């Protein structure tokens, strides 16, 4: 009896796995291309979150402290042109577009530093915030795995070319003696290979919702022998994008004659043709009567 019970459980699972789902973009009223628009949230994950640091002054004196890196939420806006049903074997659709985003974070130094006359030791709890405003272009090659008639998982590589046009740092000025913390600034022009993973749903004919999670996996420019992190101040940061997009397919042009000009409206019925006022049909009838009389 137990064997039959397990068979009853396996048969529905096997049938569900063998089921052929309906195509997601097979409507005759829509083309296999269109636009998608997205809004997203960005963040910077520090690697590591907390670590020790030693400050060195010109007089060779050193002071110990700790750095606590904290991620901050940013924003992203993007627009892309997509093409579905590509001829490539491993990808289901392509995207090319642009985006604007802001990456934010904060460092907190807790430790000692030199006094005003360099003969004393003071303690500090200094916070430094940064905002990196960036514009860029991107190209995606996405593979889809459909698990129902209306839902699917998608993943694929993303090539991103970005330019940080504004790098803002907010450093408090209430400390008399400057603290020699590292102030690394990222290279403004960057090119990287990202990886995107997400889920999608078909809402209506030609309308889809997509939720995607994206992060760099390889930094090309500037080339560094490290993980694809971004060096800001004294910490390495891993950027992450979480984006919600609405995909719209282009409407197929109508083949009906409703919008075509009416040819009968352009004909002047009062204007005679090349035969003048002669009635060709009347002439043919007269010829036929003459032949019958003969």
Describe this structure in words.
There is one protein chain. It contains 2 helices and 10 strands. It has 294 residues and is mostly beta strands. It has one domain: Porin, CATH 2.40.160. Strands 1-3-4-5-6-7-8-10 form an 8-stranded antiparallel beta barrel. It is elongated, with a radius of gyration of 35 Å. The N and C termini lie far apart (102 Å).
Helix share bin: 10-25%
- Kindly estimate the percentage of residues that lie in beta strands according to DSSP: over 45%
Number of strands: 10
Q: Quote the distance from N terminus to C terminus.
A: 102 Å
Give the tags:
Porin; mainly beta; 10 strands
List the helices and strands and how they pair.
Elements: H1 2-18, E1 30-47, E2 50-56, E3 62-84, E4 93-114, E5 121-146, E6 151-170, E7 189-204, E8 207-221, E9 230-232, E10 235-251, H2 280-293
Antiparallel strand pairs: 1-3, 1-10, 2-3, 3-4, 4-5, 5-6, 6-7, 7-8, 8-10, 9-10
Concise synopsis of the structure shown:
11% of the residues lie in helices and 57% in strands.
């Amino acid at each position: 009896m137990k064997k039959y019970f397990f068979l009853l459980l396996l048969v529905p699972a096997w049938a569900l796995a063998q089921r052929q789902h309906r195509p997601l973009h097979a409507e005759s009223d829509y083309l296999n291309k269109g636009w998608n628009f997205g809004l997203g949230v960005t963040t910077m994950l520090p690697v590591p979150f907390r670590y020790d640091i030693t400050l060195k002054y010109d007089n060779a004196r050193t002071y110990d402290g700790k750095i606590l890196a904290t991620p901050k939420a940013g924003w992203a806006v993007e627009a892309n042109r997509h093409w579905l049903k590509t001829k490539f074997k491993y990808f289901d659709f392509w995207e090319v577009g642009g985006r604007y985003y802001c990456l934010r974070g904060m460092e907190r130094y807790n430790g000692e530093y030199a006094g005003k006359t360099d003969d004393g030791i003071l303690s500090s709890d200094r916070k430094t915030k940064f905002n990196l405003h960036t514009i860029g272009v991107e190209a995606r090659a996405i593979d889809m795995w459909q698990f129902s008639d209306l839902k699917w998982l998608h993943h694929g590589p993303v090539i991103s070319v970005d330019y940080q046009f504004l790098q803002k740092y907010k450093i408090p000025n209430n400390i008399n003696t400057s603290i020699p913390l590292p102030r690394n600034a990222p290279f403004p022009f960057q090119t990287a290979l990202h990886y995107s993973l997400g889920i999608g749903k078909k809402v209506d004919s030609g309308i889809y919702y997509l939720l995607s999670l994206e992060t760099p996996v390889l930094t090309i420019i500037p080339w560094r022998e490290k993980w694809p992190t971004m060096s800001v101040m004294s910490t390495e940061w891993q950027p992450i994008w979480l984006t919600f997009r609405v995909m719209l397919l282009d409407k197929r042009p109508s083949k009906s004659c409703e919008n075509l000009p009416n040819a009968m409206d352009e004909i002047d019925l009062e204007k005679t043709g090349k035969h003048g006022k002669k009635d060709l049909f009347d002439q043919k009838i007269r010829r036929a009567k003459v032949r019958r009389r003969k």
